[in-house]
Structure formats: C-alpha cells, structure tokens
C-alpha cells in the first residue's frame, strides 16, 4: 500500500505574514526612507513618543515589502535567551527552541524590538553582529552561528522622552542604525487618523485632537507625556459606543494620564474648553 501523501508542510513563519493592508497615513517621507533602508538591508531605529504610530508603520511596511513581521515587546526582565532561544526538556530529551529573533533571522522576517531600552543590556548586545556587515547571530548555548537570511531586517523603537541615564540606548548600539523620527502628526492628519480608526465624525475627531494639543502643552508642567494618538482613538471609540464626549475624554485621556488631583483639575478644564 502506498504511504499517504503528506499535504504541503506549512512554514511556521507564515503565521507572521500580514495578509491585509494595515491602514497607515504617512506624515512625511518615512515610507520611501524605510524602503531605501530595507533595500540596502540597513537596520532601522524608530524614535518617538508612545502611541504615535511606530508599530502601525512597521506593520504597514512589512505588508508592503511582503515580509513576515516578528514583534517583541521588550521589558526589563527580558533576557538574551528570551530573544535567541533556549534548550527545553521534552519527552525526547532536551530540544533547542528558537526564540523570536532567531526565527526571524533564519526565515527572512522583519524583527521589530519594541521599546528596546527596556531590555537588559546583555540583550541589546546580542543584536550587534546582526547590524553590521557580519549579519549573523551567535547562539552560544547551541554553539551555532546563524547567518541571516538575505531578507532579514532588524527594526527597534525607542522613546527618547523616557530616557534616563540608566535606560538610554548605548552609543555602540545607536550608531548601528538609521533612524526615522516620529512625532504626533499635524492636527489635520491626526484628526483624519482618529476619525478613521475610531469610526467617528470628523468634527468629533477634531475636538479630540484639540484636547490632545492642550495636554501636550502641559508636558513638563505636571505631565510626563501628552495624550497620544492611541488615547484619542480610545476616546473616540467610547463615543462611538454612546459615551458622551466629555466623559470619554475623562476615561480615555485624563484619568490614565494624571494621578495628581490638581493637574487632573487643570486637564479637565482644558478638556471642557475644547468642547
Ligand atoms: P507606537 O508603536 O508608536 O506606540 P502605535 O503604532 O501602536 O504606536 O499607534 C497607536 C495607534 O494610533 C495605532 O494603533 C493606530 O490606530 C493609530 N495611528 C497612529 N499613527 C497612525 C498613522 N500615521 N496612520 C494610521 N494609524 C495611526
């Protein structure tokens, strides 16, 4: 009897392919600059405040370039093994499991390390040999040197606003990257994004953007960061669910941003002035 014919073996990296176009509204030349950097296989650093579109931009670019996207949200407990992989015990003994970075390197994905400075410094050092002419990743525990797939690219993001002496991008790391700078877009573009993403009327979106502008002016005067585009979208989504606009601004913008009662009062009156 003939052996059954195996169906096509699915490549696990296919799970990371982005099938439909993520909406991204460009604000300058960032799409062309990214394409040029990718064509030269240069690593990219996306700089900018939280919630201003960096992740959405990478998703859009991965879709445009038809590359799988492996995203890792970095945090302070993250070790180099979390990125590159480790030996794990299973029924057959110890088996090596590639981490997300190694999988991306082997299979030609774009690997996006979000908020890379949050990770421990030994973690950032493992990416160095991937970001120069060597383009390889040493797996010390496995005694293997993985040569990067020709389509592999490394992208990291970094919020200079959070920077402290302890959590700054090392000079030897930052000098390996081309950088694209992000900020909150111009009011008209931001309103367009909020209207589309939250599914609200253009006028509601414009009001939310005015609220954001007020909060951004309070940065450094009691606020660590102003309201992000992400927060405006959340407020818009609440209004689309029937929550009155002022309450939506409280829930999605003022309360998450501010703890101190005085600043909260200042922020709340700024909101009322915008409505
Ligand atoms: P970051 O990675 O900078 O923290 P995100 O990319 O997650 O921020 O952005 C937050 C949300 O804001 C996105 O999910 C998206 O809805 C919206 N957004 C921000 N900028 C844009 C843009 N230029 N085009 C489309 N959506 C955007």
Number of domains: 2
Overall average residue pLDDT: 92
CA gyration radius, whole angstroms: 22 Å
- Quantity of strands, as a count: 9
Count up the helices: 11
What strand order characterises the main sheet? 2-5-8-1-9
Order of helices and strands: HEHEHEEHEHEEEHEHHHHH
Distance between the termini: 76 Å
Sheet-strand content, in percent, reads: 15-25%
Query: What would you say the CATH architecture of the largest domain is?
Result: 3-Layer(aba) Sandwich
The CATH homology group name of the largest domain: P-loop containing nucleotide triphosphate hydrolases
From the 3D structure, determine the CATH topology of the largest domain. Answer: Rossmann fold
Categorize the overall geometry: elongated
Class of secondary structure makeup: alpha/beta
Helix content: 40-55%
Enumerate the spans where pLDDT stays under 50 for 5 or more consecutive residues: 1-5
Bound molecules: adenosine-5'-diphosphate
Q: How would you characterize the largest beta sheet?
A: 5 strands, parallel
CATH C-level class of the largest domain is: Alpha Beta
Descriptive account of the structure:
By secondary structure, the chain is α/β, with parallel strands linked by helices. It has two domains: 168 residues, Rossmann fold; 87 residues. The chain contains eleven helices and nine strands. The protein has a five-stranded parallel β-sheet with strand order 2-5-8-1-9, with helices on both faces. α8 crosses α9, α8 runs antiparallel to α11 and α9 runs antiparallel to α10. The radius of gyration is 22 Å and the shape is elongated. The N terminus is likely disordered. The site of adenosine-5'-diphosphate has 15 residues, from α2, α7 and α9.
């Amino acid at each position: 009897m003939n052996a059954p014919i195996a169906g096509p073996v699915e490549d696990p990296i296919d799970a990371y392919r982005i099938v439909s176009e993520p909406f991204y509204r460009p604000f300058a030349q960032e799409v062309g600059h990214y394409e040029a950097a990718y064509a030269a296989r240069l690593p990219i650093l996306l700089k900018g405040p939280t919630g201003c579109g960096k992740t959405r931009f990478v998703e859009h670019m991965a879709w445009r370039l038809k590359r799988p996207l492996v995203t890792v949200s970095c945090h302070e407990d993250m070790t180099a093994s979390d990125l590159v992989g480790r030996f794990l015990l299973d029924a057959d003994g110890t088996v090596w499991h590639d981490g997300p970075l190694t999988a991306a390197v082997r299979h030609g994905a774009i690997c996006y390390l979000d908020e890379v400075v949050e990770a421990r410094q030994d973690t950032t050092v493992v990416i160095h040999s991937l970001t120069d002419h060597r383009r390889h990743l040493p797996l010390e525990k496995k005694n293997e040197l993985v040569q990067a797939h020709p389509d592999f690219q490394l992208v990291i993001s970094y919020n200079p606003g959070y920077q402290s002496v302890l959590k700054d991008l090392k000079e030897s790391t930052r000098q390996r990257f081309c950088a694209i700078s992000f900020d909150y877009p111009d009011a008209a573009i931001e309103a367009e994004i909020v209207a589309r993403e939250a599914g609200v009327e253009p006028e509601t979106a414009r009001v939310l953007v005015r609220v954001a502008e007020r909060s951004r002016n309070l940065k450094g005067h009691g606020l660590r960061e102003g309201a992000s585009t992400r927060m405006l979208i959340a407020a818009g989504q609440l209004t689309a669910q029937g929550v009155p606009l002022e309450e939506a601004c409280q829930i999605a913008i003022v309360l998450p941003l501010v703890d101190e009662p005085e600043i909260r009062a200042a922020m709340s009156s700024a909101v009322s002035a915008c409505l």
